[in-house]
Amino acid sequence: xxxxxxxxxxxxMSGKFIxxxxxxxxxxxxxxxxxxxxxxxxxxxxxxxxxxxxxxxAGCCAVIPGVWxxxxxxxxxxxxxxxxxGATSSGIRAALDAKGMNDITVVGWAGDGGxxxxxxxxxxxxxDRGTDFLYVMYDNEAYMNTGSQCSGSTPWGxxxxxxxxxxxxxxxxxxxxxxxxxxxxGISYAATVNIAFPEDLIKRAQIAQSIRGPKFxxxxxxCPSGWKMDPSKTVEVAKLxxxxxxxxxxxxxxxxxxxxxxxxxxxxxxEYLRLQRRFRHLSPTQISxxxxxxxxxxxxxxxxxEASRK
Length: 310
Known about the structure:
By secondary structure, the protein is of the alpha/beta class. The protein is built from 12 helices and 8 strands. Strands 2-1-3-4-6-5-7-8 form an 8-stranded mixed beta sheet, with helices on both faces. Helix 1 (6-13) crosses helix 8 (198-210), helix 2 (37-48) packs across helix 8 (198-210) and helix 4 (85-98) runs parallel beside helix 6.
C-alpha cells in the first residue's frame, strides 16, 4: 500500500513542487520562541501525512507537543526512556505489521544527545534488525532540555555549560559523523536536511518514506537559548550553516553519496559564528581554524562522493 508522500513526489518529478497544505501540527505547542524543532516537526509531518506514528525519548521533543490535556499533534505519539528510540520503533513496527497495517510510517524522533550518545546502541540494533522505520535526529548541538550541556554533536569550539570556553577552547572535538557511522552500520537511506530549506527537507523525507528498511534524517534545529542568539534569526542562522559549509546538505542512497543543495558562492564561517554568542569567545585565529576544519570536511565529502560514483 502507498504511504502518505507518494502524490507529492509525483508532482515534484513532473516539474512542480507544492508544499502540502494539510497541517498535522497545530498552535499551542510549548516550544521556546524561535525554536527550530517545531518547524522541523511541522515540515516532516506535512511530508509524511497522517498515517504516521511517532515515538520520542526524554528531551525537548517530549514536552513540546503540549502538557495534558492539550496536545498539538494530529498523530499518535509514544513517550519512552532516553535510550530506547530504536527499540521502541522496532516494537511499534512489529505490532503494526502483525495487524497488517504496513502503510503506516513509524518515526523515531530524538535529539542529538539521545542519538549520537545515549541512544546510539538502540539505533544500531534497529538497523541490524532491518526495522522499516524513519529515525529523525533533530540536532540542536547540545543537551538543551537540561541546560546546554555538551553532546557528541556539539561543534568544535562551541560554549556549553560543560565546555565553558573563556581564553581557552574547552571543546576541541567536532561533531560525530553520525550519518557515515550509520551507513557503515547498514542504513538503507540517510540525508542531512535543514529547516531553512523546507522543500528539500520535504523531498528527503518523502524519499525516505518510499524506501523500505531503516532510514535516517539529520535535521539541523537551531536553539536560540542554547546558541545564545536572537530568536527572530532562527531561519537566517540555519541557512548560513549550510551556506558556509558548517552543515552541508547531502544524502546517501543506492550506495552513492551526493550533495542535495549545491552552494556555489560559499560564505566565510565567521558570518555564521558571529550571530551566536556561544562562539563569541573565539579569537580570529580560532575562527580561521574552524574555517580550515570546514574546508577539509567539504573536501573529504567531495572525495567520498566521487569514490561512490566509481
